[in-house]
């Protein structure tokens, strides 16, 4: 799906104290605590309160006491200081894509960073970004300059959130995760002080995979970039009216083919009800893909015969919807190979087929994500995995919600019973048992130690945040 055009008028070159912001002179003083060039504090009664409170997932209706609309780093400091004065817990919202609504809280303060979306690429190909840069904005800014920051594909996702949790997508097998290119951050801590990871290397380690909203408010991210490939080669195959047993057979064949994919290729196995779509992309046109494509053409019902595109054009086909939806989306586990889910995969597919609006998807990892040079450099704990599953369910009518929620919980239970217990922090699910080890592996104690130093009273918190004890 084509993404919407990103308006980058008046983007400032400096991130942080001079970050880009949109002035909002129509804010009504009667429903504001204060309003200046750095931050606006909105009460519940303000007409824009619900605009800023809105999440990508419409399932959540959470009511903070204050929305702090921060336009600069100084504004973030003012917001944190206000929260301290009034003993308010703090949650952080940049892209608003947290699957479990962790960007909001009840009766606390939410720091909204949506105005802090500046970008600057210097002559040495170093990228400096505000926390609320969206992925469509990232690609439209970097690709015409011949540079790429490997990241996800959903247009409206915020760069800080995806980076802090890891960040994979079409280019991860070729280049690595988004967090692997993170070289530094600035953060406002719970005392309103500005910290830089150049002075606190442990903070950079944590920001490479520990997720968002645990230690403070990230106000600036610094990245290395790579030379952007010129072309995106795209292939899509479909099969229809599948029984669960037939889908299992195709899944096994898909794993076999993907075990041999070149690093410049990515694939997704997407079972939507009883329809299977196998998507493959690549940035090179070489013989290593020929046999794989022939095999899929042979076993699937339809080959969509997509044409290659310039990378700037091709990425837009994967931007997805940007409007808010009702859904439940969960991590369905990390796998090394098909054997990790072989005993339960038919059950997973049966639940998917019998749950209205359900999708079960498996994405390729491996390649340079598993490169040993990244080991120990960040909190991302799943370098050995070659695949990542996710389950999704969408609905429009409220009466369909419970069936969808039950279906996703049944999938999670089936995975747990079959010892699939490692999960992706950017795909959170409140039903995950033992999220501390599921998301962070052996790194949780180390993250707790940093949490105790930076936020000893646990003021930055949500249902699955890093706890001090």
TrEMBL record:
<keyword id="KW-0274">FAD</keyword>
<dbReference type="InterPro" id="IPR006094">
    <property type="entry name" value="Oxid_FAD_bind_N"/>
</dbReference>
<dbReference type="InterPro" id="IPR050416">
    <property type="entry name" value="FAD-linked_Oxidoreductase"/>
</dbReference>
<dbReference type="InterPro" id="IPR016169">
    <property type="entry name" value="FAD-bd_PCMH_sub2"/>
</dbReference>
<dbReference type="Pfam" id="PF01565">
    <property type="entry name" value="FAD_binding_4"/>
</dbReference>
<dbReference type="InterPro" id="IPR036318">
    <property type="entry name" value="FAD-bd_PCMH-like_sf"/>
</dbReference>
<feature type="domain" description="FAD-binding PCMH-type">
    <location>
        <begin position="60"/>
        <end position="228"/>
    </location>
</feature>
<dbReference type="InterPro" id="IPR016167">
    <property type="entry name" value="FAD-bd_PCMH_sub1"/>
</dbReference>
<comment type="similarity">
    <text>Belongs to the oxygen-dependent FAD-linked oxidoreductase family.</text>
</comment>
<protein>
    <submittedName>
        <fullName>FAD-binding oxidoreductase</fullName>
    </submittedName>
</protein>
<keyword id="KW-0560">Oxidoreductase</keyword>
<dbReference type="InterPro" id="IPR012951">
    <property type="entry name" value="BBE"/>
</dbReference>
<keyword id="KW-0285">Flavoprotein</keyword>
<dbReference type="Pfam" id="PF08031">
    <property type="entry name" value="BBE"/>
</dbReference>
<dbReference type="InterPro" id="IPR016166">
    <property type="entry name" value="FAD-bd_PCMH"/>
</dbReference>
